[in-house]
């Protein structure tokens, strides 16, 4: 059901896992949406076709972000795992304040904390503190590992699949981007009750990766196994794939956090805030079988002897 609403929402990271779904939801609900994207491509053209206003810019460019903020009532801030988060947060906060933006939903992560060994995780904690010091109504989202993670990191050969990750026997409840989008949209629509809150977001079932592999196997109809690896081997594999040092440092350290239980837990925040029943792993994989037709973009193959 759509409603008439003159508010304009700015969605950054608008072609990403949570951003694109948030754009879609807000448009379906009758809102005006401005999507900030890094470049024009098929993804941004799809958002434009759905009714979003597309602006091309860089979150590290103050003039780009200031222009994107004009007339905006609420904004979603989502920065990738890349260098520059704190600079981008300063740019975003100043531009939003100058433009009279009322509220922000900030995508953080569950490992964000003062003592984090991951540079990215610690920077997310600092970014939260910075946004808390602005006049914006501010809500931080701290999701556990996305359900999309399994499609990015899995390997497929013929009719078998494998998850090769340095996560030991740790556990988490995978949470899909679409489910997080319902929370993002709900908070943008009614930000006041959520001001200065940090919400950990989880999927419906806590699992280890052997159990996740089993759920994938049932959904895909092929054998899927979990092969635990060591952090050092994983990092070497990422280096061989050409991944950036910032990402490798982050993933190596959150792997240790994961083993230590930082990512575990479940709650009902997606139901309570987003009015949405979150997807199980089997439901997620079943709904996206095409994504599992080949190895994921981040798959690290076994080290050759």
Protein architecture, described:
It is a single chain. The protein has 305 residues and is α/β, with parallel strands linked by helices. It has twelve helices and ten strands. Helix 3 (62-69) packs parallel to helix 4 (85-99) and helix 4 (85-99) runs parallel beside helix 5. The radius of gyration is 19 Å and the shape is globular. 45% of the residues are buried.
Provide the descriptors you would attach to this structure in a database record.
seven-stranded parallel β-sheet; Ergot_Alk_Oxidoreductase; single chain; NmrA-like; 305 residues; 16% strand; NAD(P)-bd_dom_sf; NAD(P)H-binding protein; 12 helices; alpha/beta; three-stranded mixed β-sheet
* General form: globular
Low confidence ranges: none
The biggest beta sheet, please? 7 strands, parallel
* End-to-end separation: 58 Å
Please report which band the strand proportion falls in: under 5%, 5-15%, 15-25%, 25-35%, 35-45% or over 45%.
15-25%
**Number of strand elements:** 10
Fold blueprint:
Elements: E1 8-11, H1 19-28, E2 32-37, H2 42-50, E3 53-56, H3 62-69, E4 74-77, H4 85-99, E5 103-107, H5 119-132, E6 137-143, H6 148-153, E7 154-157, E8 160-165, H7 177-189, E9 197-201, H8 209-220, E10 224-228, H9 231-240, H10 245-259, H11 269-274, H12 281-287
Parallel strand pairs: 1-2, 1-4, 2-3, 4-5, 5-6, 6-9, 8-10
Antiparallel strand pairs: 7-8
